[in-house]
């Protein structure tokens, strides 16, 4: 393989990592509070707001139900407004983040749902405020489940980012399609797939390690 | 210390409303241990949660330490809860916190400084006998140890009241008695008023001063523990007692028990001795003075705190006049006599 090809592969790997890292970070920052909100506003929960809960739930479901490739194209005007362009890695980060936020939120909500209701009850009996219950009890206790959810999100973002080529986003998936598939270069295809596999394995192992470290059950 | 007046709780679940509590009146005197016993679903759990307003009563008043709980705003309620400790059947410890950090949690919530927290937590851990476990996690502890951590945590904010929600129901009998002993020590040494709910007579027998019996959302008895064990006023109370003493008539006897007496039957009676009657040789006197033979089918002596309680199921053998005389004799000696039925002679 030529060194130009290797450069391309290296650049694509960095692009993928960049897209996954930035969209993963932003979607966690926004999805975590949304997930917590989805949980605590449920009926009979500590901040029970059934109407708000239903509203948030519907919005989250809409976000989850639009196929990524369609979302990416549909929000092009919004993307252009936000990052000034509709093509390139930065432009791909916008739809990736928007797709991941409801995904993260539902996984966080699920992680919180796994906790024993007795924990919240005990905290309430101690005179904890809802905010104290969230940051002293719910989030620390659900730590393992939250990390598991974020790991799943990162892995999903790796595969979503392969579609970023559709908006000129680059990355490994795009490289695989353009060089490996369209130009009949099986070696490139093989390399991109291997790198993607290694990347996913690495994310998963890191996640598993962090879960083990945080779990005391 | 705790006063519930006319407390009702109705769960509105669509078409059918469930009455979990029906105008409950309950007074728990300062420094006492008060037990509420009942079958599952009787409303025990709702009752204890109405004290610290984990469940808000649909109507009625809840006064703890002179404060009307139902009228407090959120912040005042949280402050009031600092003065009410609570422990649970399943302990509800935070799995990601060490024993030390679990006990420290209520103090952190109150905004107390790290140094002051340490000065409070370490002696508490010593008091519950877990001074050496501070750095362990709950998953490394046994059930009894977990409940000890929960007790230390409940006491951290120096409450005047401790609520125990089936605190020993998940523990084996030996651990149960050690936890009960700890609760009794806390009551005696710190003067903390304890309200506990349970379905175990053993718990009531070993540590409670007073007991209330709850059935279908209503308190149907409220007495001194000694009285409850010697003379329960309701059928449910008697059922609890019989289960506890395992003094139900044997099946074989029940099968041939007749409701109505006739020329050819003997009465079968249940005798309850308490107080002075326990130490009187009544049965032998009965035989001598009334001319009946007494066949003892089952008997048991229990000591309930400072009181002794004797129970016996016996067949009174003799003619109709003699057995009537014997029953009058027993009744005149402050014995509780209950005729269970009649059996055929020589059966």
UniProtKB/TrEMBL annotation, chain A:
Belongs to the binding-protein-dependent transport system permease family. Its main location: membrane. It is a multi-pass membrane protein. The keyword Transmembrane helix applies. The chain crosses the membrane at residues 20-41, 62-83, 89-108, 146-168, 188-211. It is found in: Cell membrane. Coiled coil: none annotated. This is ABC transporter permease. InterPro entries: AA_ABC_Transporter_Permease, MetI-like, MetI-like_sf. It holds the Pfam family BPD_transp_1. It comes from the Bacteria. Residues 13-207 form the ABC transmembrane type-1 domain. Keywords: Cell membrane, Membrane, Transmembrane, Transmembrane helix, Transport.
From TrEMBL, chain B:
It comes from the Bacteria. The keyword Nucleotide-binding applies. It is a peripheral membrane protein. One of its GO terms (molecular function) is ATP binding. Signal peptide: none annotated. Keywords: Amino-acid transport, ATP-binding, Cell membrane, Membrane, Nucleotide-binding, Translocase, Transport. PROSITE patterns: ABC_TRANSPORTER_1 (PS00211), ABC_TRANSPORTER_2 (PS50893). Residues 2-241 form the ABC transporter domain. SMART domains: AAA, NIL. The keyword Ligase does not apply. Pfam families: ABC_tran, NIL. It is found in: Cell inner membrane. This is Methionine ABC transporter ATP-binding protein.
């Amino acid at each position: 393989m030529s060194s130009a090809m290797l450069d391309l592969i290296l650049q694509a790997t960095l692009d993928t990592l960049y897209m996954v890292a930035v969209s993963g970070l932003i979607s966690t920052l926004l999805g975590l509070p949304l997930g917590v909100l989805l949980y605590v506003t449920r009926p009979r929960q500590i901040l029970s707001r059934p109407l708000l809960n239903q509203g948030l739930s519907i919005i989250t479901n809409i976000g989850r139900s639009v196929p990524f490739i369609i979302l990416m194209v549909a929000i092009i005007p919004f993307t252009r407004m936000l990052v000034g362009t509709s093509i390139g890695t930065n432009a791909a980060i916008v739809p990736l983040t928007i797709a991941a936020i409801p995904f993260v939120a539902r996984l966080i909500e699920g992680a919180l749902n796994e906790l024993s209701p007795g924990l919240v009850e005990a905290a309430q009996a101690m005179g904890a405020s809802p905010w104290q219950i969230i940051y002293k009890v719910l989030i620390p206790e659900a730590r393992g489940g939250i990390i598991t959810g974020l790991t799943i999100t990162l892995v999903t973002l790796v595969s979503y980012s392969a579609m970023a080529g559709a908006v000129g986003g680059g990355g490994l998936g795009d490289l695989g399609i353009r060089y490996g598939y369209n130009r009949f270069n099986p070696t490139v295809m093989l390399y991109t797939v291997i790198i993607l596999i290694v990347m996913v394995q690495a994310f998963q192992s890191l996640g598993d390690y962090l879960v083990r470290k945080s779990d005391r059950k | 210390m705790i006063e519930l007046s006319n407390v009702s709780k109705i769960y509105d679940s669509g078409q059918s409303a469930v009455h979990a509590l029906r105008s409950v009146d309950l007074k728990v005197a300062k420094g006492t241990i008060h037990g509420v016993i009942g079958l599952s679903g009787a409303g025990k759990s709702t009752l204890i949660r109405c004290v610290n307003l984990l469940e808000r009563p649909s109507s009625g008043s809840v006064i703890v330490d002179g404060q009307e709980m139902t009228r407090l705003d959120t912040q005042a309620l949280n402050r009031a809860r600092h003065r009410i400790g609570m422990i649970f059947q399943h302990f509800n410890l935070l799995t990601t916190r060490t024993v030390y950090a679990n006990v420290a949690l209520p103090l952190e919530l109150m905004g107390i400084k790290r140094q002051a927290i340490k000065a409070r937590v370490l002696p508490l851990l010593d008091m519950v006998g877990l001074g050496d476990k501070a750095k362990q996690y709950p998953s490394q502890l046994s059930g009894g140890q977990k409940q000890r951590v929960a007790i230390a945590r409940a006491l951290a904010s120096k409450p005047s009241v401790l609520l125990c929600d089936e605190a020993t129901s998940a523990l084996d009998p030996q651990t149960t008695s050690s936890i009960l002993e700890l609760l009794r020590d806390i009551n005696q040494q710190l003067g903390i008023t304890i309200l506990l709910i349970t379905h175990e007579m053993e718990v009531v027998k070993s540590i409670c001063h007073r007991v209330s019996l709850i059935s279908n959302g209503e308190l149907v008895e409220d007495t001194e523990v000694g009285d409850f064990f010697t003379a329960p006023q309701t059928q449910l109370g008697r059922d609890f007692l019989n289960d506890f003493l395992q003094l139900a008539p044997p099946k074989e006897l029940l099968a041939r028990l007749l409701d109505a007496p006739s020329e050819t039957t003997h009465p079968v009676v249940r005798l309850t001795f308490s107080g002075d009657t326990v130490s009187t040789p009544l049965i032998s006197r009965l035989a001598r003075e009334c001319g009946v033979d007494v066949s003892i089918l089952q008997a048991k002596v229990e000591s309930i705190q400072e009181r002794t309680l004797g129970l016996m199921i016996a067949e009174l053998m003799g003619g109709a006049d003699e057995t009537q005389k014997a029953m009058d004799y027993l009744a005149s000696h402050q014995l509780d006599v209950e005729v269970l039925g009649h059996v055929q002679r020589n059966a």
